[in-house]
Amino acid sequence: xxxxxxxxxxxxxxxxxxxxxxxxxxxxxxxxxxxxxxxxxxxxxxxxxxxxxxxxxxxxxxxxxxxxxxxxxxxxxxxxxxxxxxxxxxxxxxxxxxxxxxxxxxxxxxxxxxxxxxxxxxxxxxxxxxxxxxxxxxxxxxxxxxxxxxxxxxxxxxxxxxxxxxxxxxxxxxxxxxxxxxxxxxxxxxxxxxxxxxxxxxxxxxxxxxxxxxxxxxxxxxxxxxxxxxxxxxx
Length: 235
Ligand code: PGA
Fold this sequence. Notes:
- The protein has about 240 residues and is an alpha/beta fold.
- Helices cover about 35% and strands about 15% of the residues.
- It has helices at about 20-35, 50-55, 80-85, 95-100, 105-120, 135-145, 150-155, 175-185, 205-210, 225-235, and strands spanning about 10-15, 45, 60-65, 90-95, 120-125, 160, 195, 215-220.
- It has an eight-stranded parallel β-barrel with strand order 1-2-3-4-5-6-7-8, surrounded by four helices.
- Helix 8 links the parallel strand 6 (about 160) and strand 7.
- The protein starts with 9 loop residues before the first strand and ends with a helix.
- 2-phosphoglycolic acid binds near residues 163, 199, 200 and 220.
- The site of 2-phosphoglycolic acid (PGA) has 13 residues, from strand 8.
């Protein structure tokens, strides 16, 4: 196990809109918990759908999104304070699936980041380019807009995740050496923890830690307890 920059690698499971039932969610969670609880030097966080969060105990938890207000007339939204109250430590913000399918704008993402920080959650901000786009240009613009008017002190608390959109859920992961170029690009701008996400499996997970990423955001592979456990143990 490698500790990059003296910091434990952070492995975040993004369950997205899965599984379909609480019974399955508990089974998956307990299966993962049994094995990863004892793994030292790795921080594991599970981000289940909101409705299962209160029912899952014994591992660190995060939300997959949050609204930008503390409470009020916002039908269907979940506030960062509510996540905090359910003992969540983290919240994913600006995932490309929300940017694309729910038209989440950089302006909204910026507000959500501020609200999450106010609630003392650690935001995991996702950035990345679509196929054919210039990664550096896109990420530069996303970071500039998403992090607008956030104080230096708060800025440091945000975890950045490089997730090339074309690599998400496709099996077409971005090779670690290539991803490292973007890692360096972001590092030149920000002194934050940086994760990689996009079709990570247990065979390749360690490569990203070896090139300097501080952790991983895992989608599909986090829905199979055995595969996710292997990722946690292999990095
Ligand atoms: P994936 O998803 O691992 O299934 O590619 C990653 C993500 O969307 O965070």
